[in-house]
Amino acid sequence: MLEPAKTIRLFGIYLILEGLFLMLAPSTILSTIGIPDPESVWRIVLGFVVVVLGYYYVRNAQANLIPFFGFTVQVRIAQFVFFVWLYVFERGTLTLVIFSFIEFAAGMWTWRALKAQSSS
To answer: How many CA atoms does the CB half-sphere of 67 hold within 13 Å?
Structure first.
């Protein structure tokens, strides 16, 4: 497995775990990031969507689909900027920004691995 694929696979596993927490223990994760638990089916639906997204990451990593890796870097940067924007305009919490920084850092790790892969 290529080094960029390893970063994507690990991030996919992270997403699967995050989605499972949203589905099975939403109050725990939502209270951690300062969002009240809405006690609705939508938090479970969102958790399932995150699990599916994680599955896509893991499967694309296994298939070494390099174009997908680059697309994820773009989206993870955009996601971080979006959550910072939410915080600046008092619609999100600082903890949410910190959690999104994990995704940003993982995106930068993937970007560096892609850059190293292309130069070898």
So the answer is: 0
